[in-house]
Specification:
3 domains, 14% strand
């Protein structure tokens, strides 16, 4: 079967071949009605762009990259650990936008995120792969040396949920500080005054904003006792922190625990039940993210839904549009709405 050409599409759509070319290359000057007309013809004729020819002409690769930080324990041969649900949600959203725009998604981890080794890894990747732009997620999106390195190389990038440096790039996320404050208000309304907090990794900037909103609002009440323990966003770290908070030898036991993500929240619930505590009768638990595990644990976890798939869809669309317009709109910040999700793991005292 002969390959469908731009001229075939132009004839089918009743437009000039220059108009078809502009649509294929995502030129923003094409009106929406005309663009849709051409795209309908492209679909009807089964058109697939010739990526190799585009590259030879100095055009776009129609590929964006998702760069992940070190995934030690996840990608080694023989590992039985799954990629965190948060990352799979990001990939889902990016793929949805890439598919609609005729783009491919390349996913690559870097094994070392320290400045010198990390810069070498990024440079090697960009030498091996032709990419139109990059998406950075926590914790890499808060490595400002990396952001500046990409900017200096002329590589367009969009960051998902960064905690700092918003003026450098397009940033897509939600208001972590406001969400943390809303969790604190919920805890106070339910009369809890001894509260435990399980943090995320120290290199996740968005988690620090979450903590700032939570701790500031909670401590506005003089009778509140707040203690925090470190976690790393895994079920096991939630279990370990709960063990410190809740075991019989502990000299201080909270009535409520806020875990900075749902996987740790599920770990808290599991540990509490393992020692015979009732959730929420003896200990109330709140997570964050509304990941799949929040609905799979028992009792189901009260949490804050961060719209990760929607945020990621938006990030890919912003990046693809910015590449087409050759305008990275540095400093643009898009915050999606979050939503408090009340389930069975939290109760008043």
């Amino acid at each position: 079967m002969a390959r469908v050409t731009i001229k075939d599409i132009a004839k089918h759509a009743g437009v000039s071949f220059k108009t078809v070319s502009r649509v294929i290359n995502k030129n923003p000057s094409v009106g929406e009605d005309l663009r849709e007309k051409v795209e309908v013809s492209m679909t009807a004729l089964g058109y697939r762009p010739n990526r190799a020819a585009s590259l030879l002409r100095g055009g776009k690769s129609y590929t964006i990259g998702l760069i992940l930080g070190p995934l030690t324990g996840y990608i080694e041969p023989g590992s039985d650990r799954s990629i965190p649900t948060y990352i799979t949600d990001i990939i889902t959203g990016l793929l949805q936008s890439c598919g609609r725009a005729g783009y491919h998604l390349l996913i690559e981890p870097i094994t070392n995120d320290q400045i010198e080794a990390g810069a070498e890894a990024i440079d090697a990747l960009l030498e091996d792969m032709t990419l139109d732009g990059l998406v950075l997620v926590p914790p890499l999106c808060d490595r400002l040396w990396l952001v500046d390195h990409l900017i200096n190389k002329g590589m367009p990038c969009v960051r998902i949920n960064p905690g700092k440096g918003h003026e450098r790039t397009i940033s897509i996320g939600f208001d972590n500080e406001a969400a943390g404050a809303e969790v604190a208000s919920y805890v106070l309304r339910h009369n809890h005054r001894k509260v435990g907090y399980i943090s995320g990794p120290p290199n996740h900037g968005s988690h620090h904003l979450r903590w700032q909103g939570f701790s500031r609002t909670l401590c506005e009440e003089s009778d509140v006792e707040l203690r925090d323990l470190g976690g790393n966003f895994t079920f096991d770290s939630g279990w370990a922190a709960a063990e410190q908070f809740l075991n019989e030898s502990s000299d201080w036991r909270p009535t409520a625990i806020f875990a900075a993500n749902d996987e740790m929240g599920a770990g808290v619930i599991a540990y509490a039940k393992s020692i015979g505590l009732d959730v929420p009768g003896d200990i109330s638990v709140i997570g964050f993210g509304d990941l799949a595990v929040a609905s799979q644990c028992f009792p189901r976890l009260t949490t804050v839904r961060q719209p990760t798939i929607e945020i990621s869809r938006d990030a890919a669309t912003e990046l693809i549009n910015a590449v087409a317009m050759r305008d990275m709109a540095e400093g643009k910040v898009v915050n999606h709405p979050y939503r408090f999700v009340e389930r069975a793991s939290f109760a008043a005292i």
